[in-house]
Structure formats: structure tokens, C-alpha cells
Amino acid sequence: QVQLVESGGGLVQAGGSLRLSCAASGRTSSRYAMGWFRQAPGKEREFVATISWTAHITAYADSVKGRFTISRDNTRNTVYLEMNSLKPEDTAVYYCRVSGTNFWGQGTQVTVSS
């Protein structure tokens, strides 16, 4: 079992920045890729970004490419999502997940005002 806790969400104006964190605990000795997803009101949860265990491989949704950066610190069992040039359409609950599993965090709300 792995427990995930997201933090760092909040209210920000368009063009602003936020940094989300996802702290893992439990069976953190396993090497796993991690992903960020988001779900806006009335919409399905969608992929945002993913990062491999070594951080050598990252991938992003087209909608965030060039604005968001995923990173990780394995010594802290934490994955980050740096979000810049935020847009109102980025408003959503952001979740992290252990790739290939059903281990999800509880989510953190990001609201971008226009």
C-alpha cells in the first residue's frame, strides 16, 4: 500500500504560478513512475503529466506543455508539479497517482481567476 497526500493548491490569478506537492508514504521502497491528473467540475479526470522513477522520462498533456513541469525528489518520496502561466481552464482538483495502480491521493483544489 502507498498513501499519497497532495498539497499546494489554492486560488491564483491568471498568469500566476503554483507548485503542487505529492508526498508518498507506505511502500515507498518500490520504484514507480508517478503521474498528475486533474478533474474539472462536470468533466472527466484527465492526464496532466507523468515522470519515471529516475526522472529521465517525462510526458505532458498538450494543454499544459511548456507551462507545467513535473519533477521528483526520491529522497523525500515527493513528486512536484510546477505550474506557470496559469489559465482559468486549469481550474480543477489535481490528483497524483502511482502509475499503473489504483493508488490516488485525495486531491488539491486549484482555482485560477480571470
Write a brief structural summary.
With 114 residues, this protein is mainly β.
Describe the structure.
It is a single chain. The protein has 114 residues and is mostly beta strands. Helix content is 0%, strand content 52%. The protein has strands spanning 2-7, 10-13, 18-26, 34-39, 46-51, 58-60, 68-73, 78-83, 92-98, 108-113. The strands form 2 sheets. Strands 2-10-9-4-5-6 form a 6-stranded mixed β-sheet, with no helix packed on it. It has a 4-stranded antiparallel β-sheet with strand order 1-3-8-7, with no helix packed on it. Strand 4 and strand 5 form a beta hairpin. The termini are far apart. The mean pLDDT is 95.
List the helices and strands and how they pair.
Blueprint: E1 2-7, E2 10-13, E3 18-26, E4 34-39, E5 46-51, E6 58-60, E7 68-73, E8 78-83, E9 92-98, E10 108-113
Parallel strand pairs: 2-10
Antiparallel strand pairs: 1-3, 3-8, 4-5, 4-9, 5-6, 7-8, 9-10
Give the helices and strands as they follow along the chain. EEEEEEEEEE
Spatially, the strands of the biggest sheet line up as 2-10-9-4-5-6
Helix content: under 10%
Q: Main sheet?
A: 6 strands, mixed
What is the count of helical runs?
Answer: 0
Strand content: over 45%
Mean pLDDT: 95
